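Entry for the shared binder. Reason: the reviewer on the internal report wants the predicted structure included alongside the sequence.
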Amino acid sequence: MKRILLAEDEEVLRMLIVDTLEDEGYMIDEAADGGEAIGFLQNNRYDLVILDYMMPVYTGMEIIEKMRSKEKEEHTKILMLSAKSQAYEQARIFKAGADYFMAKPFSPLKLLELVEEILNEDR
């Protein structure tokens, strides 16, 4: 079973994403802020980390920076969710180390399609 960490501070959106992905059999750990996300990352390994760009405690960008500096997480796939969808923001996100980007608002089904595509690349 593939394991995903979702770090999203908007509770309703987090619940929607968790429900969508759990219905497809993914195991999800959910963090309501960047601090919780760091705690999960210190204690677990993930196939995919989905990060919100703007969160309390640590932003998605700060989490990517911390992840990419650790050998055990340097190859973990990262999907950044953000309303900041301008080309220069996306360039910053990819330069920081994110592997994928999805602009908010988005369809939960589109997110599911992208997650399945990401997690099936390894096969």
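Summary line for the report: Helices lie at 11-22, 34-43, 60-68, 87-96, 108-120.
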